[in-house]
Structures are given as structure tokens and as C-alpha cells.
Design goal:
The complex is a heterodimer of chains A (228) and B (490). Chain A is mainly α and 228 residues long. Chain A is built from seven helices and no strands.
């Protein structure tokens, strides 16, 4: 792909998409919960920005509405809800020690390379530009998944989950110019409900194991435990 | 059209009503009433589909394939609602759940049925995704209804694993839409299954195969395919029994239905390329592994509901294998198996719930002498297990026999694996079931108030399907087979 051949707006889109990927790395390594929530909010802002740029370059006015929806949901509402939950659970000074941070970063880098490799079969000329953004969004999805695997703190896992959702949205916007409106609204509704339920579960988990370290949710094993 | 809208939206209206009803007795009956209404609407819809072939409009589309699942869903929903009324009453009286918890249970039960009907009847693959995710959200609070540490853990696992899985399915859907944009110019049609199916041969094969991998892993998580099955035994064993019955009997089916529809699209796109059988082979592989692994795990279980959830994984694996194999015979067998498995497995979960109430525990080692204590429960459990293990004259035997014949024709070597798997699973179930139903009962064990009508009806239907599949049903399944494979079997 020849960078100079792209229009300025397209170049801006690439820059923004890579910044989204960068926030994914920040999110993965950030041990302080409040800072991680801020990183997540910035990711939401960047995605809203990508959406706006796409709307302008491809002349897709309905994407402006999506951008607004993302901004409201991913950059404002969900971070605010998480913030309140963290304060109510008194976790605002919580620092979760990362196990093997270097290895985790390397794994994330490997995931990025894997995503780039995965989209190589898409060779049709008019899809080359989109291909890169699909790779970036797939990497964001996979890093979100990695985050859910390596982090033990329930709130951090939810952040991973939500950033996966961000990656999916990025893919939908950049590759396809946004899903049909009914689907987009449905997905947004599901995400919002999921967030509310996660909030409920934080309290349930803390009630049952007295912490939010989900590694300690280990009563159910393959052998089945004795129950009375 | 009216019947279609009633089929889908009656449960939603019911959920609103049940959220508002505070008192215990009326809400139990209202739950039954709404489910019965939904079932009648679905039957009328089925008659219309039988007359016209396809009922479509407003983004919905019901043809021979999904109408049969719609009827099955509404039927199992109805019988489970009938069972759950006295059962949940017992649970509330024993103090495990508050009255508010019961209200949540009734509301979410109907919301769950709504998402199932929506997923089945929608023509839009995006809405299908939203509905399947909605089903997770509706049931996750029910899995943790008892609020024990185990239940909370099971629900968290269910939430996270299914959330991740379903996110991958959404990525697959986005890729599908991406491929569709170069074929279907208008943006609304890009996710409409019927539009895509009509033009599936011109979809870009490279993107479609990539999309299918994501869709298979995503929806496969919900089907309970190994190795993404980890949530399933936990959610089934810790949630209230009616929930286990509908999760196993309905949710897994709907996820498999989604896979089946998507496979039809991808098959069309890949038909002219060198790896035309990729989706089929992938499904066969995942299906066979799930089938064999779950059969082995059956032997190690100590919890009765956990054991039966492994049996569900085993059967879902078998169906996935069948649909992967393709061809009219295997597809017909797979569709029949979907039906008999749903009926039998929900009956078994209901009976296992009663058994757990009798013994006061779900631990297999402490459930003893069921036939002595309460013959109805003991015999139902025994007959249910006989049926699910694939003994004649039950319907599961008929469908498994068809599947084995189809495998023998297409891939003879796999027949050996299937037979070994069936034997292993049978042994695993019976070594646990035998001491539970026979033998002396503990002295303090008393019968419980049990409503065995749903179980009897389900098992009688399975028996009927095994002895003689009624002509209209056979033609119906045959039309669905024709829709999927393009060929009649009958």
C-alpha cells in the first residue's frame, strides 16, 4: 500500500486506528484501575473520531449518528458507570500486580502480527485500504481477549470485554461503513445491559468471596464438589 | 403475519406483565398462561407456513426449517413453565429464593423465550446475533439466582465465556457484511439472510471462510462445543432446574440453528472453490471431538445435573457432526435428533430436579432408591436415560440410526468412532443412574409434590417419534432438509 496515494482524511483514519490499538496496549498494562478506565474512555473517544472521519470521507451521514452513540456510550456513560462502581466498591486505590508484564506485551505483539497475517488473503485491490483497519480491529479484539485471560481483577476483565466490543465496532465502521441501524442499536442496547449486569455481579462476587479477584472463584472443578 | 408477530412478541408482553405482578400464586399461573398463548400462536403460524411455504415481512422470515424449531421452542417453553410453577414454589418455601427473586425469575424466563423466538424467526443475521446475546443476558442472572458462591461463580464464567464467544461471532458477522457489500449494494439487504442466500455464490470466498471460522467459534461456544464448553456444565448445574431444562433444550438448539443457516451461506460462497467442504469438515471435527470428550467426562461426574449437561454436550456434538457431514440423510437425522434431544433432555432435567428435591442434594452419591421413595420420579428418570442413550424404541434411537447410516455411506471410518462414543456415553450414564434409581432408600427420604405431566408428555412424544414418525412431521422435516441440502430424502 502506498501511503502517499491516500487522501489526507484516509491517512488520518489510519493514524486514529493505530492510536486505538495503542490504547489497547495501555489498557493491557495499566495496573491502576482508575487510570485503566480513563484509557478505556480515550479509546472510546478515538473510535468516535474514526467513525466521524469515515462518515466524512465516504459521505455516509448515518455514521455521524453512530459516532454520537459511541461517544455517549463508550466514552462517557460506561466509563462513568465503571468509575462510580469502583468508588462504591472502594477500589479506587487498588493496584493489581501484573504477572509477567513483559511476556504479556510480547503476546499482544504476537496477536497483532497474527491479525495482520490473517487478513492477507483479502487481495482485491479496492479492499487493500480496509484490510489494514480490519487487521487493527481484530488485534484490538484479540488483545481485549488476552486482557480477560491475564487479568484477575473482575473490573479489569470487564474493561477487556468492553474493549473487545470497541474493536468489533471499529471493524464494523471501517470495513463496512457501519451495520444497519437496527443492528447497531441492538448491539448498543446489549452492551449497556451487559454493563448494568456486570455492575450487579461485582457486588455478588464480592459478597460471595469477599474480593474481586476472580482467580478465587474456583469452587467448581471438573470433579464436582460435595454439596449439601 | 399476525400469528408471527404474536409468536415473537407474546413472551415480551408477558415479561412486562410478570415484572409488574407482585403476588406469588398469580404470577406462576400468568407465566403458564403466557407460555400457552405463545404456543397456540406458534401452532397457528406453523399451519400458515404449511399452507403458504414461507411467511415473511417486517424483517422476519419463517420457512420450513425455523418453523419447526419455533414450535419446539414454544412447546418446551410451555411444558417447562407448567413444571416450574410448583417447583419454584417449593424453592421459595424452602427459603433459597426470595419473592423478589421469583419475580425476576418469571420475568427473565419470558424474556429468554422472547429472545429465542426472535433469533429463530428473524431474517437479519445482525438481529439474530443481538437476540442470542440477549439470551445470555436474560439467563445470566437466573444462573446466579440462588446466590451461593458456586452459583455466582458459574454465572460469572457463563457471562464471560459466552460474552467472548459471542463477540467473536459478531466479528464474523461484520466480515460477512463486509463480503456482502460487494454483492448486495443496498445496505439494509447486506445482513438479510434470504437476500444473501439467493446470491451466495458471488460472495468473496476468502472473506467468507475467514468469517465462518469466527462464526463457528462464536456460536459454537453457545452450542457447547469442546473446548469452548467450560461454561455449560457449571451454568446447568448451579442454575434452577427449569433454567437447565430450557438452556439445554432450547438455547443450544438455537445456537446450532444459527450455525446451520450460516453454513448454508458459506457453502454457497465456497461451492466453486477448491476447499468447498471446509465448513463441513470444520463442523465435523468440532462435533466429533465434543461428542467423544463429553462421553468420557460423563464417567467422572458427581453432580446429577452436571452429568446430564455433559450428555447435552455429547448430543450437540453429534448433531454438529451430522450437519457437517451434510447430505439429505444426515441432515434429516440431525433435524430429528434436535427435536428428540430437546424433548428428552428437558424431561430428564425436570426429573433430575425432582430427584434432587427428594434427596435434598444434587450429589449422585447421595441420591439413592428413587423408585422406592417415589416411583413416578424414579421410573421417569430411568426411562429418560434409556431414551437419551439411544435405545429402541425411543426417537433418539431412530435419529442416531439414521446418522450412523449416513456416516456409513459418506465416511465409513467415522462410524467406528461414533459407535465407540455411543457405548462410552451409555456406560457413563448407566453406572451413575443404576444406584440412584434402584436400591434401598435412606430412611428419612420422603416423596415431594411433583408435577410429572410435562415429563410424561415429553417421553410419550419421544416414544411415538421412535415407533412411528407421523406423516406430516416427516414431510415437514423433509421440506427443511430440502431447504438445507437442495435434495429430498423421503
Amino acid at each position: 500500500m502506498n501511503i502517499e496515494a491516500l487522501s489526507l482524511l484516509e491517512q488520518l483514519m489510519l493514524v486514529l486506528a493505530s492510536l486505538v490499538l495503542f490504547t489497547s496496549f495501555v489498557l493491557l498494562e495499566q495496573t491502576r484501575l482508575v487510570a485503566a478506565i480513563h484509557a478505556f474512555a480515550w479509546q472510546g473517544v478515538l473510535i468516535a473520531a474514526v467513525t466521524t472521519v469515515t462518515a466524512l470521507t465516504n459521505d455516509l451521514p448515518h455514521l455521524l449518528f453512530s459516532a454520537l452513540l459511541t461517544m455517549a456510550l463508550k466514552a462517557l456513560l460506561i466509563p462513568r458507570m465503571l468509575h462510580r462502581l469502583v468508588r462504591r466498591l472502594q477500589l479506587d486505590r487498588d493496584v493489581e500486580p501484573l504477572r509477567r508484564p513483559a511476556l504479556t506485551t510480547l503476546a499482544a505483539v504476537a496477536l497483532v502480527i497474527f491479525s495482520c497475517w490473517l487478513v492477507l488473503p483479502i487481495v482485491r485491490a479496492e479492499l487493500i485500504f480496509t484490510r489494514n483497519i480490519v487487521a487493527v480491529s481484530l488485534a484490538v479484539v484479540l488483545i481485549g481477549m488476552l486482557m480477560m485471560v491475564v487479568r484477575r481483577q473482575a473490573v479489569a476483565q470487564v474493561l477487556g470485554f468492553m474493549s473487545m466490543e470497541n474493536g468489533l465496532f471499529l471493524a464494523a465502521v471501517s470495513a463496512t461503513g457501519g451495520m444497519p441501524l437496527v443492528v447497531e442499536l441492538g448491539v448498543a442496547f446489549d452492551v449497556l445491559v451487559a454493563m448494568v449486569l456486570f455492575g450487579v455481579f461485582f457486588f455478588h462476587i464480592r459478597e460471595s468471596i469477599d474480593s474481586l479477584d476472580v482467580d478465587r472463584l474456583n469452587r467448581l472443578t471438573e470433579m464436582g464438589e460435595e454439596k449439601v | 403475519m399476525t400469528a408471527l408477530l404474536l409468536t415473537v412478541f407474546t413472551p415480551l408482553a408477558g415479561a412486562a406483565l410478570l415484572a409488574w405482578l407482585r403476588r406469588l400464586t398469580p404470577s406462576g399461573w400468568a407465566n403458564v398462561g403466557v407460555s400457552v398463548l405463545t404456543f397456540f400462536a406458534t401452532v397457528i403460524l406453523a399451519l400458515q407456513v404449511a399452507r403458504d411455504g414461507v411467511v415473511a415481512g417486517a424483517g422476519f422470515r419463517v420457512d420450513a426449517l425455523n418453523v419447526y424449531l419455533l414450535v419446539l421452542t414454544a412447546f418446551v417453553g410451555m411444558t417447562t413453565a407448567i413444571f416450574s410453577r410448583p417447583y419454584m414454589r417449593h424453592v421459595v418455601e424452602s427459603g433459597k429464593v426470595s419473592e423478589r427473586g421469583l419475580r425476576l425469575y418469571h420475568t427473565m424466563f419470558q424474556v429468554f423465550l422472547f429472545t429465542m423466538q426472535l433469533a429463530l424467526s428473524s431474517d437479519n443475521l445482525g438481529v439474530l446475533w443481538v437476540a442470542v446475546e440477549g439470551a445470555t443476558l436474560a439467563t445470566v442472572l437466573l444462573v446466579s439466582l440462588y446466590r451461593t458462591p458456586e452459583a455466582v461463580e458459574a454465572a460469572w464464567k457463563y457471562f464471560i465465556l459466552c460474552g467472548v464467544g459471542i463477540a467473536l461471532a459478531l466479528f464474523g458477522t461484520v466480515l460477512l457484511y463486509f463480503a456482502a457489500q460487494h454483492v448486495v449494494p443496498e445496505s439494509e439487504g447486506g445482513l438479510t439472510w434470504s437476500t444473501l442466500y439467493a446470491r451466495s455464490s458471488s460472495l468473496e470466498p476468502a472473506i467468507m471462510s475467514l468469517a465462518f471460522v469466527f462464526l463457528l467459534v462464536g456460536y459454537g461456544t453457545k452450542v457447547g462445543l469442546v473446548p469452548m464448553h467450560q461454561w455449560l456444565p457449571d451454568a446447568h448445574s448451579e442454575g434452577p432446574t427449569p433454567m437447565s431444562a430450557v438452556l439445554s433444550g432450547l438455547l443450544l438448539n438455537v445456537a446450532l440453528y444459527a450455525l446451520l443457516r450460516l453454513k448454508m451461506l458459506v457453502d454457497g460462497a465456497l461451492s466453486t472453490t477448491s476447499n468447498a467442504h471446509l465448513p463441513g469438515y470444520l463442523m465435523m471435527g468440532f462435533g466429533l471431538v465434543s461428542f467423544l470428550v463429553a462421553g468420557l467426562f460423563l464417567h467422572r461426574q458427581r453432580d446429577i445435573k452436571r452429568m446430564f449437561s455433559y450428555s447435552s454436550i455429547e448430543h450437540m456434538g453429534l448433531m454438529t457432526f451430522a450437519f457437517g457431514l451434510g447430505g439429505p440423510l444426515a441432515t434429516f437425522g440431525g433435524l430429528l435428533h434436535m427435536m428428540v434431544h430437546s424433548l428428552t433432555k428437558s424431561a430428564i432435567f425436570v426429573t433430575a430436579g425432582h430427584a434432587a428435591h427428594i434427596a435434598g442434594t444434587q450429589s449422585i452419591e447421595r441420591i439413592r432408591g428413587l423408585i422406592r421413595t417415589q416411583p413416578a420420579v424414579g421410573w421417569s428418570l430411568l426411562i429418560g436415560v434409556v431414551a437419551i442413550s439411544g435405545f429402541p424404541p425411543f426417537g433418539v434411537f431412530a435419529s442416531e440410526f439414521l446418522l450412523l447410516t449416513a456416516t456409513m455411506q459418506a465416511q465409513p471410518w467415522f462410524t467406528v468412532a461414533l459407535l465407540v462414543g455411543l457405548a462410552v456415553a451409555f456406560a457413563g450414564l448407566f453406572r451413575h443412574i443404576h444406584p440412584m434409581v434402584y436400591g434401598a432408600a435412606p430412611a428419612a427420604q420422603r416423596p415431594v409434590r411433583a408435577n410429572m405431566v410435562p415429563v410424561t408428555v415429553h417421553l410419550a412424544l419421544v416414544l411415538w417419534l421412535g415407533l412411528a414418525i407421523p406423516g406430516f412431521l416427516a414431510r415437514w422435516l423433509d421440506r427443511a432438509t430440502e431447504l438445507i441440502t437442495g435434495m429430498h430424502w423421503l
